Recover the amino acids of this structure.
């Protein structure tokens, strides 16, 4: 009670009577005055009480003054009250200084001060100080009213789930109050405990089991599901095993949650996602605890799991426990859930897909067909194809089949539309003509049939009873995966002898599948004797005497009576089918490992061969490009230079011959220009008549020769395409010579030759001294008749003996300017024509190199860590063995 007075600032009530409390200020004033007048009076207590009254009347300054003068045992509380007054005034700094100055051994005061400092620092948004003082309060007195509730509120408000979880766990252990355990369950369900190691909760779980079994199951389930999705799952399982091994679970009242958790984890751990070395420390303990927790009627599953595990991994479970498990299996009726078996098959197929291990489309299709729960299959077989076809046609009321040698699935069509699909390793495709199908083909036929609808099953027919090859060295035995076998016995004696032998084979292979016989035209033998022989192997077999004259309805009635496709008796058959598929798939996957290694090694060798071949081809193409470029450019240059040489020889002669155009009666005043015109015309005629046709002809010949050169390149590339594509067994390489450049060249040559003309040349106006003098003389003396003879001779002499090298060079340069540029572009054009093929070869070479590296990495991974392949299959084998035990 005294503590409440101090906390609530009502200490003054302890020194005033009821009447004085009506006017506490006056009453305490009188008491102070009276006490002051007495020697040794207790003024400090009165000042403390006066401060409280002033505080409630909001006279905070007076209250502070009174408390500052308290120096007895109430001094620390007075300081705390001064801090409260400062806090009330908003003087947070002064308040904190006052609070932190208090050094008291009173736990209640220490907690109160700490809580005030928490509130103050919350306002200052000082997280570290808030945490410091709330921890001080809890460390001083964790049972102090609301102190842990305040701490929880603080942690949750700041979303500090680590401290919130730790608080809940610590308080749950300390107080054993179920409220804190429930709080902890809430945190787990919201995902706030994911960063905690599983071992953190060990003591909490053990304690909770002692206090409340139901809450224990809830917390265990929540943590279980949390860690199941994390990297700490195996650590959690080890902890769970340790906890349940230490608990006395014989008196558990509700085991359902815990049993479900063990079952779920067993299935999860056995999906092929963990290595054996990871499971060895976990699985045996899980199975032992599961067995111990299970009631008598639920012990079969963990007992068979324990025996199967120890069978694959010997000496991992104590012998006494194994003996107990064997006793349980002997004692209890064996049974396995169809869902569990189906889940195992699906897990195996998922694992294969995830690890890119090819089961094959055909086998996947067969598995999907034969394991679909609502589908039932009647296998129609026999030694004679003719007999099988007759019965199939009778059931379908249609003559569809003869003696085809392919495997056939016939389903009832829902929309009265027929459809035939061929199933291959690559996929499926619709087939229009049954005669196009080859042997060992797998066909899915949908056919509108009233009998199939009535039977509620699909028909399966295979060329050979015993097996069907889906892939190399891979047998698919239909007798293990159908829901019934209808064996057709033909009347010929050899066929009957074969049928008797096969009946014995069926009896040795098939335990749960009903087998019945159709006797087709057996008049030549003793029918009753034949039946007795067959019943010797299959005592439950029934017989139908088939004749083409009998109604197909009676055959369907026989099947309906003796094959119970629509009843629950097929559950055992379905389970056997699934177990067979799992066993076959495991064997296939193990074989696939060896095949995978061989395939990778073969691929590496092939890709290395291709890489070297492409590298050699790249070198050949580069060399060929240089060779063809040199040949083509040099032949072009030769043609051009020969023509240039001809022009060098002939133009000066043509120009010299122009002297004959001068006569003594020429007009010498314009003769200079007249000769220029004549020479220009003569040269242009020469180009058009002599140069252009010859150059066109030589270039045409050059184009033809060049085309032949490039045709050799094309033929070379075609041969390389064929060689590579034959190696790849597909049209992968397509190298080609670029003949577009020939169109470009032809266009350019036509353009250049068709405009082979030169601008007017001033032959007589080159302003050399002799030319200048003749020109001037003509202008001066041209009108003097007596001088004509002189000029005539001078002009003739000049032209006949003239040096026309410079002007000829000018003409040649003008004529061949574009042809010279064309020559310079030839090499780049030829390089471009080869470049696409060279680039493709480089791409193929790099692709081969990439495939080599990828295959080497995969091979290295497989060789380095074979357990990543083999361990999952061994785990699946444990589950398969367990289910086989439960099915016996």
């Amino acid at each position: 009670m005294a503590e409440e007075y101090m906390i609530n600032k009502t200490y003054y009530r302890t020194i005033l009577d009821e009447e004085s409390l009506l006017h506490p200020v006056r009453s305490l004033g009188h008491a102070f005055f009276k006490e002051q007048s007495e020697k040794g009076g207790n003024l400090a207590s009165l000042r403390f009480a006066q401060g409280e009254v002033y505080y409630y009347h909001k006279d905070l300054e007076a209250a502070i003054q009174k408390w500052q003068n308290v120096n007895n045992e109430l001094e620390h509380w007075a300081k705390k009250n001064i801090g409260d007054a400062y806090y009330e005034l908003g003087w947070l700094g002064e308040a904190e200084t006052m609070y932190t100055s208090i050094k008291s051994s009173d736990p209640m005061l220490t907690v109160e001060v700490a809580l005030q400092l928490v509130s103050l620092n919350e306002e200052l948004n000082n997280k570290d100080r808030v945490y410091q003082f709330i921890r001080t309060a809890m460390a001083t007195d964790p049972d102090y009213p609301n102190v842990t509730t305040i701490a929880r509120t603080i942690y949750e408000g700041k979303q500090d789930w680590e401290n919130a979880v730790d608080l809940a766990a610590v308080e749950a252990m300390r107080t054993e109050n179920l409220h804190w355990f429930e709080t902890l369950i809430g945190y787990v369900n919201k995902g706030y405990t994911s960063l905690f190691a599983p071992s953190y909760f060990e003591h909490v779980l053990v304690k909770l089991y002692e206090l409340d079994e139901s809450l224990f199951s809830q917390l265990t389930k929540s943590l279980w599901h949390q860690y199941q999705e994390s990297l700490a799952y195996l650590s959690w399982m080890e902890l769970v095993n340790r906890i349940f091994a230490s608990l006395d679970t014989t008196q558990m009242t509700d085991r359902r949650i815990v049993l479900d958790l063990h079952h779920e984890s067993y299935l999860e751990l056995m999906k092929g996602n963990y290595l054996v070395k990871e499971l060895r420390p976990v699985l045996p303990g899980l199975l032992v605890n599961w067995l111990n927790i299970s009631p008598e009627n639920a012990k079969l599953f963990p007992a068979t799991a324990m025996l199967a595990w120890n069978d694959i991994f010997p000496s991992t479970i104590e012998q006494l426990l194994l003996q107990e498990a064997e006793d349980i299996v002997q004692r209890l009726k064996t049974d396995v859930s169809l869902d569990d078996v189906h889940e195992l098959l699906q897990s195996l197929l998922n694992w294969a897909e995830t690890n890119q291990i090819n089961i094959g489309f055909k086998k996947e299709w067969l598995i999907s067909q034969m394991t679909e729960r609502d589908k039932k299959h009647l296998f129609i077989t026999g030694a004679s194809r003719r007999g099988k076809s007759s019965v199939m046609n009778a059931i379908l009321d249609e003559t569809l089949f003869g003696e085809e040698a392919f495997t056939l699935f016939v389903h009832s069509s829902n929309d009265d539309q027929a459809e035939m699909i061929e199933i291959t390793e690559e996929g499926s495709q619709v087939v229009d003509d049954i005669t196009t199908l080859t042997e060992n083909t797998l066909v899915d036929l949908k056919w509108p049939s009233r009998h199939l609808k009535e039977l509620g099953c699909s028909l399966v027919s295979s060329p050979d009873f015993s097996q069907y090859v889906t892939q190399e060295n891979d047998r698919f035995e239909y007798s293990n995966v159908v829901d019934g076998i209808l064996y057709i016995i033909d009347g010929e004696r050899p066929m009957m002898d074969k049928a008797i032998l096969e009946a014995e084979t069926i009896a040795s292979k098939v335990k749960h599948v009903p087998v019945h016989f159709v006797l087709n035209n057996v008049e030549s033998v003793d029918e009753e004797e034949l039946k007795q022989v067959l019943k010797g192997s299959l005592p439950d077999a029934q017989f139908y005497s088939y004749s083409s004259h009998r109604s197909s309805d009676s055959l369907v009635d026989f099947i309906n009576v003796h094959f119970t496709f629509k009843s629950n008796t097929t559950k055992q058959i379905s389970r056997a089918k699934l177990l067979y598929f799992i066993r076959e798939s495991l064997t296939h996957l193990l074989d696939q490992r060896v095949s995978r290694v061989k395939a990778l090694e073969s691929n590496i060798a092939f890709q290395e061969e291709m890489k070297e071949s492409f590298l050699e081809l790249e070198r050949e193409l580069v060399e060929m490009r240089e060779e063809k470029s040199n040949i083509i450019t040099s032949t072009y240059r030769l043609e051009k230079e020969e023509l240039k040489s001809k022009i060098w020889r002939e133009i000066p002669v043509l120009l010299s011959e122009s002297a004959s155009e001068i006569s003594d009666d020429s007009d010498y005043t314009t003769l200079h220009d007249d000769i220029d015109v004549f020479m220009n015309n003569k040269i242009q005629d020469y180009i058009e008549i002599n140069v252009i046709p010859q150059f066109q002809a030589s270039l045409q010949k050059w184009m033809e020769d060049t085309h032949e050169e490039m045709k050799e390149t094309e033929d070379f590339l075609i041969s390389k395409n064929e060689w590579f594509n034959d190696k790849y067994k597909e049209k992968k390489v397509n190298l080609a010579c670029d003949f577009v450049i020939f169109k470009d060249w032809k266009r350019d040559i036509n353009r250049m030759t068709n405009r082979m003309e030169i601008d007017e040349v001033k032959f007589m106006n080159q302003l050399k001294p002799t030319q200048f003098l003749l020109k001037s003389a003509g202008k001066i003396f041209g009108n003097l008749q007596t001088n004509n003879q002189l000029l005539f001779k001078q002009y003739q002499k000049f032209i006949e003996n003239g040096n026309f090298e410079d002007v000829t060079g000018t003409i040649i340069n003008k004529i061949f300017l574009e042809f010279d540029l064309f020559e310079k572009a030839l090499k780049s054009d030829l390089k471009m024509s080869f470049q696409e093929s060279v680039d493709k070869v480089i791409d193929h070479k790099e692709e081969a190199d990439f495939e080599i590296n990828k295959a080497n990495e995969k091979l290295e991974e497989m060789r380095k860590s074979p357990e990543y392949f083999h361990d999952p299959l061994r785990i699946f084998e444990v589950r398969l063995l367990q289910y086989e035990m439960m099915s016996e």
Q: What stands out?
A: Residues 466-476, 767-786 have pLDDT under 50 and may be disordered. The chain has 33 helices and eleven strands.
